Amino acid sequence: MKVIRQETSEEIFPYIAYAPENRSAHPALLIQLHGAGERGEGGDALDGVLVNGFANIVNDENLTDCVLVMPQCPTDSFWVARIESIRKFIDLMMQKFSVDPSRIYLCGLSMGGFGTWYTAEAFPDLFAAIAPCCGGGMSWTAHVLTMPIWAFHGMEDTVVPPILTIQMIEKLEGKNPNLRYDLYEGVRHNSWERAFSEELLAWLLEQKKAE
User: Fold this and answer.
1) Cα separation of 117 and 119, whole Å?
2) pTM of the full structure
């Protein structure tokens, strides 16, 4: 697997990308948004994007025909404040990797979970599927989220209240037939340790936007 490391914000955000050597001419694109503790200004601090999430899961066998890109949010900012920049970054990655526009996925944890919900609500036609973990969105506009969703939260989370995910689920149940969710009993804020699994990765890569 090829590892691409962009340590400066030359392409909007510093990032690390995992790209299978044997990918097709038009692979899928999976964007992962990290939590608040992994913010930085690139350079050596960029390794923070690898601490949690799919960086601990992917390998040459399960990251099939998909480029995983993990951007880094600046220290003095947060993903919800950078939604337009996230969209521009995705557009750049689509061009860089000649991505299949029907197979773009967004996931994130904690601060990145909020970023996932909010970005998907701002650009609902962009994504084939999303997977927000221990975040929250704007429940009053949740109806725009018609793509497949798999949401996660620990029910003992004292950092991000689980009600924020539950409110999104309640707005989507009965309206989005492709909604899945796991609310982990006895789990605190680190629900990503269970959520970011090979099962989630495989599920995301199965999704494709209807033409």
Assistant:
1) 6
2) 0.97
